[in-house]
Design a protein that fits this description.
This protein has 168 residues and is an alpha+beta fold. Helices cover 39% and strands 21% of the residues. The protein folds into 2 domains: 121 residues, no CATH class; 37 residues. The radius of gyration is 18 Å and the shape is globular.
Amino acid sequence: MTQSILNADLSKMSYEQFQEVMRGFAQLYSDVNSNGNYMSLFKDLKTLAKHVERLPQDFFTFYGAYEIADNQVVVAVFRINLDAPMHSDTAPNMTIVEVSFAEDERNLQCPAQVREYLTQTDYVAQAEKAYPQIMEDLLWEKEREKRVAKLNLSEEDKRLLFEDAIEL
């Protein structure tokens, strides 16, 4: 599963065809070892999408904006479920890769960078209400602070980092 070449022209598909293709795509990545396949899934989604983004503090949910027929840009959300072998040095398996769409109310936490591409106006309005940009910004800041706390930086380096003078 680590090597894949995608040959799908989503821009010619109806919404229903798009959903079926995405379900098949999720099935391809289900029941596989996570070694390399996690990044492969993300890269494959990026080749198909206008934009793919994960949520702050959630490495296993990918939101993507995909262009389909009639210049529509729609959301698809991939959630990765892992098994976690206890006391094992082996990588966990991606047991189920689930895909869902705008109709699923769990998907209202759509990142702003994905929403800006979407033509699903009702969904975008609901997502902006449920998950405003300020909330997303606060969660990203919290994640960044956690990463910085683990780095043992000097106070000056922390100050520069938070002023965006240093990139992680």
